[in-house]
Amino acid sequence: MRVAFIGDRHVSQRSPRYAHALDVWAWAVEDALREAAEVIVHAGDACEQDPNGTERYAMGRIYRRSLDNGAAYEILGNHESREAHRWLEFLGVTPVWDRILECTWGPVMALLIPYPRRNQLPFGPDPLQTIRAAVERAMGFKATGKVRWVIAVIHGTVEGMRTRDTEFEVHSAKELVIPRAVLSGLDLTITGHIHRAQVLPREGTSGPVVCVGSAHRVDFAEAEDTKVYVMVDFPDTPGDMIGLIERPIPAREMVQWTLRWDPAVPPDIEQLAAAAAGKEAKITLECPQSLLSTVPAGLFAPVEAAAAYCVVNRKTIGLERQSRAPQMARATSLGAELGIWMESLKDDPSIQIASTRKEQLVSKLDIVQAP
User: What is the pLDDT of residues 134-155, one digit of tens each?
Assistant: First the structure.
């Protein structure tokens, strides 16, 4: 029995990555079908809230295609609303949002578990207890000899995973982290929700935990992440072990640069455009406040034209107080620095400041600088 697991997709027309999200999702489904997956499980966060008509049409085509070799499922994540799932049954896809679904696929029993929230179906005040009870029921079924493997597929965070807060991977203070002990007895746990693909090894009686990650890079914080979906072979022959295959997804690459603006040495725009071609690019331009007017309009237009998607952020650097030498700035007050500066200009006929005025200015600076 071969089963494919596809992670977070975050399809939304409001996103500049809308078309790309659909493309990589469709690619993963086609690849899973070519590789003879008999079941495809989508592990949650398919979209943002409730998809509109255009989004549903585009998503529906991929969902229908995922049924070509057998069953397909979608698990409720923390980004889409429940309404985002209620229409799936009309396509033939099984939505999992108000229950922990117990499925049998040949030698496998799978528990499909939506994002755990307290006091929201299918959970009560203690979701961990609800999950553990489902695991124990599944272990009892395995004891009958009717299945060889028992697994769980969860949209959620398991103890020991590496997490981070990004635009789409959000972890609130109230989020439940599932202890490994709750999963004790399972042969394998598959998760969505965390965007970085990772594997936690077996721990005691808890089998390995495989996080499939997001299907594409949805934030520049994910620039270095490898994007995959996971194929798992569940053998029915005694002695054979579960086979896990990570299938790389051709998600767009990301490049990032932080540049310091110097009108005397402008950035090599042609080189940047070549490096950004077909990728997503993020440029942070640091510019001293005094040089803002020297930055040409449309400076990075060639990069924006070459990149699949480009973000340009300007970071203004405040004015720096200058003095004759760093050692002087540390050793003297502002008033003393002003006195030294005026003394150096005393022979300049274009600058004439009365001595009383000089004393007043120095005195005022010393008062301002006083703690």
Answer: 999 999 999 999 999 999 999 9
- What is the rounded distance in angstroms from the CA atom of residue 205 to the CA atom of residue 220? 37
- The gap between the terminal CA atoms of the chain, to the nearest Å, is 75
Q: Do 254 and 222 meet the contact criterion of CB atoms below 8 Å apart?
A: yes
Q: Which two tokens stand for residue 311?
A: 């973000």
In this structure, the number of other CB atoms found within 10 A of the CB of residue 326 comes to 8
- Core vs surface per residue 12-49: b (16+ CB within 10 A) or e: beebebbebbbbbbbbbbebbbeeebebbbbbbbbbbe
Three-state DSSP class for 101?
strand
Q: How many Cα atoms sit within 13 Å of 256 on the Cβ side? A: 8
Instruction: Specify the pTM.
Output: 0.83
Beta strands in the chain (DSSP E): 2-6, 39-42, 71-75, 94-96, 101-105, 108-113, 149-155, 157-158, 177-178, 188-192, 198-200, 209-211, 228-233, 243-248, 254-260, 280-288, 309-317
Instruction: Express each pLDDT in 269-307 by its tens digit.
Output: 999 999 999 999 999 999 999 999 999 999 999 999 999
Mean pLDDT, to the nearest integer, of 23-45?
98
User: Under a CB-based contact definition with an 8 Å cutoff, are residues 111 and 45 in contact?
Assistant: no
Q: Which residue has the tokens 């996971």?
A: 230
Residues in CB range of 124: below 8 A, 6 or more apart? 118, 130
> Of 277, 274, 280, nearest to 251 (Cα)?
280
Neighbouring C-alpha atoms within 13 Å toward the C-beta of 101 = 19
